[in-house]
Amino acid sequence: MEIDKAIRESNDQRLKTKYNNAINVIQRALALYPIEEVAFSFNGGKDSTVLLHLLRAGYFLHQVDCGHSNGDLSGHSSTFPIRTIYFESPSAFAEINSFTYETASSYGVQLDILRQDFKSGLEALLKTKPTRAIFLGVRTGDPTAVGQEQFSPSSPGWPPFMRVNPILDWSYRDVWAFLLTCKVPYCSLYDEGYTSIGSVNDTAPNALLCIKDSASGKEKFRPAYMLSDGRLERAGRARKLSPPNAGRITTVSNGLKSVESHQSNILTASIIAVGDEILFGTVEDQLGASLCRKLHSIGWMVSRIAVVRSDVDSVSEEVERQKSTSDMVFLYGGVGPLHSDVSVAGVAKAFSVPLDLNEEFEGHLRRLYGEKCTADLNKMAQLPQGITELVQHEKLLVPLIKCENVMILGATNVDELEQQWDSLIDLRCSNLVPPTEPFVSKNLTTSLSDDVIANPEVGRSK
Fold it and tell me: How many other β-carbons are positioned within 10 Å of the β-carbon of residue 167?
């Protein structure tokens, strides 16, 4: 098998280890499930391209181990026996579609082409073709990898099947080491500076690979494998644009409709509370009302308060809805001394970024907890990669976490909220909370600062 031979002849010991581990996962899956009851989800990207060739090698080696092959590749290289699913999307790059169909033709891959969303498509497919396991090209750095292992049952509410993730522990560097060592074709977009490919609506070449052509003076991009820091592979993914009528709701607040608030430059905020105990009615949420009063006191419009369950998907879905329609999203709850912090993981998933160790935050946790903490501080310090800003103030025991326009509050009671709010107000000069225009009501306009309003003595002439 050409893939296995290329890896064996390589001097890259790390790649050999990753390859062997992935092949072991594939062979375990093929031993557990009949070949007609497994499938492979292919999308034309670099990760699934790697997995395609690992599956080709893994299946061949499995056949050798079972005594069905003597090592002769004839009859094995022309067909790929694992059912392959391709979700064709109208927003996919033409290059991805072309590469997918060319690859299928080259390696004898029989594609089941689905034109529905992933969940609906799987439900329809699994009704007609019973499938117990699906190979996925998920890596730890992917937003969807949160909580997954090499063998993970599908999530509640999805069709039942086993998710098999042979390259879960592979890095960006490992993916490109494999593709270049094995000299297998990959989508041409990667040679044009794309490092992570989504849809045409949210993907651009990675600016970190941009260089200026000395001859023409024009900008061009180096290939994806030239990216030195694999943690920044998703830097070319753009935030989703707000829908044309985002924020146009008719709820009246302070005599102004939110449509009018945009015209008056009044900033809007939304609040998300995370907690099953609130939904069960065992705890009364006092933070939401207090936070509303504080926001209104500085001229903000609160457009929505939502309470969601303590799970990653619920948090992610609500943050995804609110982050593009509000100037700032304040989130509390779901934060605690557990590495499975659903709030932080949910925010990461909403922004389509992985969690990564933040050494600065880990240092704060270690100084605060020291030996008293029995949890894994390394896991507690996993924060959304590339979008996290630590909000530090002398009043705060540990910094607050800000991810673009989402502020994660660590408050569990009104007193803690008061302390964190005061810190944010003190830091407004640093734009950690966006500055507001003078507060406007039906009867009064003022440009005085909050300190002067609260303490008239400050404003008197001396």
Answer: 26
- What residues contact residue 435 under an 8 Å CB cut-off, 6+ apart? 428
Contacts of range 426-434, beta carbons closer than 8 Å, 24 or more positions apart: 426/393, 426/395, 427/391, 427/393, 432/389, 432/391, 432/402, 433/328, 433/407, 434/267, 434/327, 434/328
Sign, CA dihedral 144-315-118-82, equals positive
Helices 172-182 and 13-32, axial angle in degrees (round to 10): 90
- CB atoms closer than 10 angstroms to residue 346: 30
**Tell me, what DSSP letter sits at residue 80?**
E
CB 112 within 8 A of CB 87: no
Tokens 């959304």 belong to which residue?
384
CA distance 15 to 335: 37
Beta bridge partners of 302: 269
271 SS3 class = strand
Where would I find the H helices in 286-381? Answer: 287-297, 312-322, 342-350, 359-369, 377-380
Residues 133 and 29 sit within 8 Å (Cβ to Cβ): yes
Q: How far apart are CA 412 and CA 269, in angstroms?
A: 20
Q: How far apart are CA 58 and CA 249, in angstroms?
A: 54
Q: Mind listing the pLDDT tens digit of every residue in the chain (462 residues)? A: 789 999 999 999 999 999 999 999 999 999 999 999 999 999 999 999 999 999 999 998 888 877 665 554 444 445 789 999 998 888 899 999 999 999 999 999 989 898 877 778 888 888 888 899 999 999 987 777 777 899 999 888 888 999 999 999 999 999 999 999 999 999 999 999 999 998 888 889 988 899 887 777 788 899 999 998 887 888 877 543 333 333 333 333 333 333 333 334 467 899 999 988 888 888 888 899 999 988 877 768 888 899 999 889 999 999 998 988 888 999 998 655 444 478 899 999 999 899 888 888 888 888 877 665 545 666 778 889 888 888 888 888 888 999 999 999 988 888 899 989 888 887 754 444 544 444 344 444 445 444 444 444 444 444
Antiparallel, parallel or unpaired: β 38-41 and 80-87: parallel
Q: What is the spatial distance between Cα 55 and Cα 230, in angstroms, rounded to a whole number?
A: 24
Name 255's Cβ contacts closer than 8 Å, sequence gap at least 6: 441, 442
239 sits in which H/E element: none
**Tokens matching residue 157:** 């509410």
Question: What distances in angstroms separate CA 118 from CA 45, 51, 131, 383, one per listed residue?
Answer: 16, 19, 15, 27
| Residue labelled with tokens 């790649």 | 15
